[in-house]
Amino acid sequence: MTKSTRLVQNLILLVFALYALVPVYLVFLAAIRSEADLFSGPLTLSWPINFNNFGRIWSEAGFATFFMNSVITAVSVTILVVLTAPLAGFAFAKMNFRGKEALFGLFLAGLVVPAPSVIVALYGNLQALGLIDNRIGVILPQAALLMPFSVFMMRTVMQDVPDELIEAAVMDGAGLFKIFLTIVVPVVKPGLMSLGLITFLFAWQEYLLPLVVFQTESLKPLTVGAASLQGRYGVDYGGIAAAGLIAFAPLVVLFLAMQRSFVRGLTAGAVK
Amino acid sequence: MLTTRSAYLFLAPSLALYLLFVGLPILQIFGFSFFDWDNGIAGDFIGLANYGRLLADGVFWTALWHNAIWVVLTLAFPLLAGLVLAAILAERNASVVRWLGAIYFIPRTIPLVVAGIIWGWIYNPIFGLLNFALEAVGLGGLAGAWLAQDNTALLSLNVVGAWTFFGFCVIIYLAAIQSIDPSLYEAASIDGASWWRKFRDLTVPLLRGSTLFLGLYAAIEAMRFFDLVWVTTQGGPGYSTEVLTTHIYKSFFLVGDFGYAATLSVVLLIIVLSISAGAFALLRKS
């Protein structure tokens, strides 16, 4: 590679790193500044770091509650998906049964379904079930909307389980569910981990469902809380920035800590 | 492969959830679209009248046009950026790949609601960083109220969408490049091929499958994205960032016209299913 080619390449890598990071840096900067010097002065960190914005948002604007709500919803959705999707993935990867192609096609079609289309009818159904303004009314549909992706990913993961392992267990007379728990699950643990992480990420980021289902302030998650701050706290930029940071910092930390597992999950459905 | 009826038991929990909360509503919107609705109550059966209205609805065509523009921009910018970045990273050492891969993907971990707020500030006409930067390099004449002008709003939002998406493209392309037989590149190097030649004649053609996958993914997302528009412009100014999902949302929650919202939903669904059917046919051919 010539020197100039390498220089141009490094420049491209750098420009996109800045594109990715500058907005994140700006929100961090705004969150730790006092309102007076928010966007005036140089764009460098000032010491001492001022945590007033976080304290104000956390206790006065209800973000302690929003945070807990995000945790409750995202964890519930994740548990629900991780308990159900692997079973279906196992069936599609390792079993023959009537209607297999059609059922798999049904899940595949769900990959592209737009959530706003579903909501037009789902909203009335949730009302009829008494699930409007109820956590269950967000958790179940959210898990359902994530199901096609999850089943698809789990099928890919389960295909890597050696058939001989399963056949040997069947010979020994073990039941299918026991085989799944004792033989398949230990082998696909990394895949389950990836599924859990990605589900958690998507559930935490969800905006539309909680926006339409929750009316009570104390049930709303961070995404809805942060969006409504814009209107209510219009010019409290430091506060809004702190709220934004609270809404995404856990995800960034989780991603950086578990990068390998995330990437394995994201590529599981794509490369094959 | 086990031939067994217990398969249905394994499928039951996820299938039940999926059918109840996604499958059933999809069937219902088809039904809804044939009725005249008044304040959430179904009135007369009106056949295809809602579809006739849709054809004459200028906002529908504007929204569809914006979705189409979004598809093209997404295919052109984040996909290409992802491909080039992945091809460059493929020849760097593992820790560089790990760090830059993480940095590029960070925007995807940020909820679109928050992304919208952050970029709203960057685009702000009074204190926004973008205008400030333009003035600093002597291009102050280009400064503007990016999200509040109808000629720049959609494009400005697309830059935000690309921001959250290009890192995903890098990760997918990188995984695919790493599965290419390295001897192909070695052979090309021995023949004296330049970096550009190898990129054009080896990397791009060998990554065709990933490009199709990402292209399909991008096109579907471009047809059905909602959060980013809703928290920034809500389709405005005027209808300059209106997309199909915001039109659906407004018809449903603001106007209360369930029949028309359902009709728009059916049409959107048919569009995304057709796009995926087309892409699958292409995939099967290659």
TrEMBL record, chain A:
Q: Which GO terms describe its biological process?
A: transmembrane transport
Record-level GO cellular component terms: plasma membrane
Question: Which PROSITE patterns would you find in this protein's record?
Answer: ABC_TM1
- Keywords for the protein's UniProt record, in alphabetical order: Cell membrane, Membrane, Transmembrane, Transmembrane helix, Transport
- Membrane topology type: Multi-pass membrane protein
Q: Which residue numbers delimit the ABC transmembrane type-1 domain?
A: 67-258
SUPFAM superfamilies found in the cross-reference section? MetI-like
Tell me which InterPro entries the record gives.
Answer: MetI-like (IPR000515), MetI-like_sf (IPR035906)
What are the TM regions of this chain, as residue ranges? 12-32, 66-90, 102-124, 136-158, 179-204, 237-257
Main location class: membrane
Entry keyword Transmembrane: yes
Cellular location(s)? Cell membrane
Q: Tell me which family the UniProt entry assigns to this protein.
A: Belongs to the binding-protein-dependent transport system permease family.
What's the name of the protein? ABC transporter permease subunit
What organism does this protein naturally occur in?
A: Devosia marina
Its organism's taxonomic lineage begins at: Bacteria, Pseudomonadati, Pseudomonadota, Alphaproteobacteria, Hyphomicrobiales
